[in-house]
């Protein structure tokens, strides 16, 4: 039994509403509004963060709540569980390139590539490492010792693992990717669920004092744009559209040298031990 049934591959002509041009225009419009509004009035970030801050106790109370902490961890487990079939399918393909993939090749590449890019490369390895915006919990307005900076300013004093933009927010909103692969009848519900999942997870990050509103809002928009672009590249645009057979063949070519080397090594080990080769 394969795992294709869990991530059915949409037909090339299928265009989920949130993955078409209308969805792109809405996302870009939201990015413009958030970017300009919070760029002109950066104090809005502080006012929203203050909603979760207890001035009397000088802390963000929810970060000490065990249930909230479990919900935060569970959100990440859910997101990675959704990409796990793609990881397994690609790993198995590299181990046994002579066998067909366990799921749609396009779906596997789409899920893994969007997760790695939105929740890894663009967050932890790029912005969070070089954009020195301090987290709410460490700025002077909330009992810390670092100066607040607006979202657009990379010159903050945070040395590493900084606030802009949210990796967990990007991971949560990445669930737009599996939502895009659901059957058409379920797709609106899947996109709505992904939106709620991203908003709730991002709200927890704000409540813990881990991120400002702009950190999580931009994380969500970046994840959506990455998913939109890769969906268009793999499924929609005729010039770049792929088939499962093409993906399977490409992965087979990549895996064959290592597979042959491993087969040769196994043959040598069997010859040395005197065992007949399979």
What order do the helices and strands come in, and which of them pair?
Layout (H helix, E strand, L loop, with lengths): L20 H20 L2 H8 L15 H30 L9 H17 L1 H8 L36 H7 L2 H5 L6 H21 L5 H24 L7 H30 L5
Helix pairs in contact: 1-9, 3-4, 3-8, 3-10, 4-5, 4-6, 4-9, 4-10, 6-8, 6-9, 8-9
Organism: Bradyrhizobium ivorense
Keywords: Membrane, Transmembrane, Transmembrane helix
Pfam families: PAP2
User: Would you list the SSEs in sequence order as H and E?
Assistant: HHHHHHHHHH
Radius of gyration computed on alpha carbons: 22 Å
Broad structural category: mainly alpha
Individual helix count: 10
Could you give the count of β-strands?
0
Low-confidence parts: 12-16
Considering DSSP H and I runs of 4 or more, what fraction of the residues is helical?
Answer: 55-70%
**Rough shape?**
globular
Portion in beta strands: under 5%
How many structural domains can be distinguished in the coordinates? Answer: 1
The major beta sheet can be summarized as: none
What integer is the average pLDDT? 90
Domain Phosphatidic acid phosphatase type 2/haloperoxidase: 110-231
Protein name: Phosphatidic acid phosphatase type 2/haloperoxidase domain-containing protein
Keywords: Membrane, Transmembrane, Transmembrane helix
Transmembrane segments: 23-41, 74-95, 107-127, 216-238
